[in-house]
């Protein structure tokens, strides 16, 4: 025994032995923090493997720097590197506890300014055990070195040896990256969620990624100046689309619901399978005489998917050609978004979603947009039950029922966005929740689509019934939209089968990008409107109905769908487009009316080129606004700049705030109901809630 110990002790007293010790200790504590302080959501064995592996490569790389030196210098370098990495870990543990997200460099940068109450909130949530977990090994190692219980080895290591370690670390990094991208494609381009980057690549790689992102954004931002605005102003002046006097201000002061139908395409409207309507409730809503429905309305998202849709809907600005604008610019940029505008018109604003708040960087972006409240996963105790969740979050029926708990507490009028999620690729739903047959295209990822869409429709129906029972239906404008396609273009044969066609061409695929857009309000002149438009046009439309002037005031790139002077050009993010005459998809131009492929004559070519110029221009302007953060130079008259530090989305603070507001102005639904909950009016057939 003694012999083994002596041998071990001898090894410890070599530079390499000490290196291994430092490395292993750091690896272990990161692993513990991964499992106790963060919710990284590793669920498959490959994800667990990646998670266990991922602290190693950069630890090897960074501690390995010390191996190029000898004696004291090498040892202290290791300790300094250890301290820096551990401090990054420590800061993230604290930040995560409060925000369920990782620190980004744009947040660190902003934390010095008054616009952020970061340090205050972080000091309050520190536990002594955090310090122990993160720094204990360093303290012990330093004591061992000072007391000479571990002796410093003066011999230099061979350069070749140090190089091998560096090489090994890089090889491991590549391996980790390869495995990760294989498991989650688009990891670094689309990003999704900081949790994903840490889960797959590790905390240090995340730091590097975030630093790169911030650097990249800062350079574009610095280059931009006030004059860049002129081009946008010029464009807006040349492309006016007035309001519609018939509709302007018709819904002024009403509550507004934005009901987000996840992955919901227009073709589902009135679609039947085996003689049954897939979405009877949404169909009825679509045909209601007080619903304005648009049947030539297209989603315009790119890689940012839901986040692109949200960006367009609430800002009338496009997403980015690659990646997500909410992730890249949501934290730092200045916005003049729907929630802020409505807040300043006396509205209570709230977004609700049954997923973690960090997804698509909502937790930060919503503050920049001026959302007063953001109810995410932790607000819904039901989400603790794994059976109540599927895919990205709480099942729609349960989510909407639980959302009502908070809706009834919102002072009226309110602007409330509800983001559903069950109808999401890969369209999985357990038997207990599924009450519609799968289609039989033979394409596994497609055939469940109608099943989850049907489930979403039932959830929608239950929610609408609740609004009717409680009276909210009569004093609200209800906006319902599909965010983007659910079936991607990679599934041509299956799409053809669903559409009862032999095959689909590019024209069919372009038309397949239609999503529902509907506005309902009591007394509203409804009907089916055939104007061509898309998500970029939503905000000016809603503002028109609410009687809020946008033209000549806000930098919104869309046009009011109700206006008579619309240009009806629908740009897609890749530069393709649809107009009432022409549909461009890839290299093909089609006649939009007939779907016939066109070989253009000279005058047609001129027209198409002109449309193309317009499309390129508007996309380019949008990118300039976003990457140059141009709205920071723009001050719409009467609009108060959003201050992010005004917002706190913690459960505690939110509940307190709502209580306070309701004590002041008794306008919430619950208050109107003499302080009684209206949840009895919420009827759901969700099997999970049956036993209640
Ligand atoms: C996750 C959800 C999904 O919170 O909104 O986003 P998507 O994958 O559709 O972009
Ligand atoms: Mn989506």
Automatic annotation (TrEMBL):
- Family matches, as CDD domains: LTA_synthase
Pathway as given in its UniProt record: Cell wall biogenesis; lipoteichoic acid biosynthesis
Q: Name one GO molecular function term.
A: metal ion binding
GO CC annotation: what is one?
plasma membrane
Task: Indicate the residues that form the catalytic site.
Answer: 306
Which residues are substrate-binding? 424
Q: Which residues form the Sulfatase N-terminal domain?
A: 254-548
- Topology of the protein relative to the lipid bilayer: Multi-pass membrane protein
Q: Which domain of life is it from?
A: Bacteria
Q: Where does the protein end up?
A: Cell membrane
Q: Which Pfam families match?
A: Sulfatase
Q: What residues form the membrane-spanning segments? A: 12-34, 46-69, 76-96, 132-149, 161-179
Main localization of the protein described in the UniProt heading: membrane
Cite the binding residues for Mn(2+): 262, 306, 483-484
Tell me which UniProt keywords the record has, alphabetically.
Cell membrane, Manganese, Membrane, Metal-binding, Transmembrane, Transmembrane helix
The UniProt entry's sequence similarity note says: Belongs to the LTA synthase family.
The entry's protein name is: LTA synthase family protein
Recorded source organism is Candidatus Gallilactobacillus intestinavium
């Amino acid at each position: 025994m003694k012999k083994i110990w002596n041998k071990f002790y001898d090894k410890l007293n070599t530079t390499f032995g000490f290196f291994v010790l430092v490395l292993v200790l750091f690896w272990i504590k990161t692993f513990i923090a991964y499992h106790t302080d963060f919710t990284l959501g590793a669920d498959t064995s490959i994800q667990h493997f990646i998670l266990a592996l991922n602290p190693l490569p950069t630890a090897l790389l960074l501690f390995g720097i010390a191996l190029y030196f000898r004696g004291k210098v090498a040892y202290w370098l290791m300790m300094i590197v250890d301290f820096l990495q551990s401090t990054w870990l420590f800061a993230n543990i604290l930040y995560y506890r409060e925000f369920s997200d990782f620190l980004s460099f744009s947040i660190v940068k902003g934390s010095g300014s008054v616009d952020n109450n970061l340090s205050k909130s972080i000091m309050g949530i520190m536990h002594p055990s955090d310090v122990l977990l993160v720094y204990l090994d360093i303290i012990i190692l330093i004591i061992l070195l000072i007391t000479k219980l571990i002796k410093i080895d003066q011999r230099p290591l061979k350069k070749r040896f140090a190089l091998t370690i560096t090489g090994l670390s890089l090889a491991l990094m590549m391996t980790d990256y390869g495995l990760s991208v294989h498991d989650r494609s688009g990891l670094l381009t689309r990003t999704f969620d900081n949790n994903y980057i840490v889960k797959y690549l590790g905390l240090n790689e995340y730091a590097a990624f975030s630093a790169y992102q911030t650097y990249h954004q800062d350079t574009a931002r610095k280059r931009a100046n006030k004059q860049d605005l002129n081009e946008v102003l010029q464009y807006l002046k040349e492309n006016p689309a007035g309001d519609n006097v018939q509709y302007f201000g018709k819904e002024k002061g009403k509550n507004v619901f934005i009901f987000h139908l996840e992955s919901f395409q227009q073709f589902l409207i009135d679609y039947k399978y085996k003689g049954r309507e897939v979405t009877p409730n949404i169909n009825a809503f679509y045909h209601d005489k007080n619903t304005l429905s648009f049947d030539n309305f297209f989603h315009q998202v790119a890689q940012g998917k839901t986040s692109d849709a949200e960006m367009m809907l609430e800002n009338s600005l496009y997403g980015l050609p690659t990646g997500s604008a909410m992730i890249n610019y949501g934290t730092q940029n200045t916005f003049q978004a729907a929630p802020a505008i409505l807040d300043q018109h006396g509205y209570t604003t709230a977004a609700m979603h049954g997923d973690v708040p960090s997804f698509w960087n909502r937790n930060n972006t919503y503050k920049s947009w001026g959302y007063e409240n953001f109810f995410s996963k932790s607000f819904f105790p039901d989400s603790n039950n794994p059976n109540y969740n599927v895919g990205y979050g709480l099942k729609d029926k349960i989510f909407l029922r639980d959302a009502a708990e908070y809706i009834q507490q919102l002072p009226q009028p309110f602007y409330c966005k509800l983001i559903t999620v069950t109808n999401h690729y890969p369209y999985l739903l357990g038997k207990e929740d599924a009450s519609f047959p799968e289609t039989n295209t033979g394409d596994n990822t497609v055939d469940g689509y109608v099943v989850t869409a049907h489930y979403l429709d039932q959830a929608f129906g239950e929610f609408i019934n609740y609004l009717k029972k409680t009276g909210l239906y009569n004093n609200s404008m209800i906006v319902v939209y599909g965010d983007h396609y659910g079936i991607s273009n990679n599934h041509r044969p299956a799409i053809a089968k669903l559409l009862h066609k032999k095959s689909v061409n590019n024209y069919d695929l372009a038309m397949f990008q239609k999503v529902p857009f509907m506005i309902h309000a009591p007394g509203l002149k409804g009907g089916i409107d055939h104007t061509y438009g898309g998500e970029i046009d939503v905000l000016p439309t809603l503002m028109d109905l609410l009687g809020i002037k946008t033209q000549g005031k806000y930098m919104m790139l869309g046009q009011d769908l109700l206006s008579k002077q619309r240009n009806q050009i629908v740009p897609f993010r890749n530069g393709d487009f649809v107009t009432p005459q022409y549909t461009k998809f890839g290299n093909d131009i089609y006649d939009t009316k007939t779907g016939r492929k066109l070989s253009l004559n000279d005058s047609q070519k001129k027209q198409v080129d002109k449309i193309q110029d317009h499309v390129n221009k508007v996309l380019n302007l949008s990118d300039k606004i976003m990457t140059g953060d141009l709205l920071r130079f723009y001050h719409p008259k009467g609009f108060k700049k959003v201050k992010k530090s005004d917002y706190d989305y913690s459960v505690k603070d939110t509940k307190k705030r709502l209580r306070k507001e309701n004590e002041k102005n008794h306008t919430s639904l619950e208050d109107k109901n003499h302080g009684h909950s209206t949840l009895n009016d919420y009827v759901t057939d969700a099997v999970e809630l049956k036993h209640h």
